[in-house]
Q: What sequence folds into this?
């Protein structure tokens, strides 16, 4: 088994120290940072996403794998900066105003980081203006919104409308998700995409930024 396959394997097992050590070894062997990232850490997290989608992995396994990926990223980060390896883009993430639930949102954030995106997590109870202002300031092409209560879902429409009012439609795209949210609702409010779970949300974001 080559070292990148070992990284994938150890990441799936949630072995953070082993992933960090293997990443150091791969760097020592002179492998390019991009290759270690794409074929090791991101490949591992893509596999985690597949296993999560097929219900072979659950939240605890995903969290352990994410911890292992972060351990590898710590080793790789200086090299990525040095080589000027770009991320796939920034995503502003948050639970909409009035909604304090964040488990689903946090899982999407983990999976997005695992797919090579930079995530700006605004947390919970985020007003529409803050989503849009942050996306403008950070140059983020995507805003991801989560809701667990039907009463807070209108906050998603408010963000979409604000983007249109400020002439940012097309430049900033929106993806929505959460237990009560549906594809039909996404179409009704004019959101650009709907993610029915964390893995599908990552796929949709990749499509939105043309990184699929």
A:
């Amino acid at each position: 088994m080559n070292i990148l396959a070992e990284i994938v394997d150890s990441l799936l097992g949630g072995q953070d120290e082993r992933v960090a050590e293997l990443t150091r070894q791969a760097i020592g062997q002179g492998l390019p940072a991009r290759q270690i990232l794409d074929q090791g850490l991101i490949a591992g997290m893509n596999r985690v996403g597949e296993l999560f989608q097929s219900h072979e992995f659950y939240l605890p396994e995903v969290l352990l794998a994410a911890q292992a990926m972060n351990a590898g990223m710590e080793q790789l980060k200086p090299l990525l900066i040095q080589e000027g390896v770009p991320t796939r883009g920034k995503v502003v993430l948050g639970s909409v105003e009035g909604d304090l639930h964040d488990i689903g949102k946090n899982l999407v954030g983990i999976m997005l980081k695992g797919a090579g995106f930079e995530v700006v997590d605004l947390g919970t109870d985020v007003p529409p203006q803050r989503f849009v202002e942050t996306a403008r300031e950070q140059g983020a092409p995507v805003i991801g919104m989560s809701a667990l209560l039907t009463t807070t879902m209108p906050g998603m429409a408010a963000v979409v409308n604000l983007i249109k009012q400020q002439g940012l439609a097309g430049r900033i795209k929106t993806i929505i998700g959460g237990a009560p949210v549906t594809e039909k609702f996404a179409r009704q409010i004019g959101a650009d995409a709907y993610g029915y779970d964390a893995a599908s949300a990552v796929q949709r974001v990749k499509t939105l930024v043309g990184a699929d």
Notes: Strands lie at 90-95, 118-121, 142-146, 173-177, 193-194.
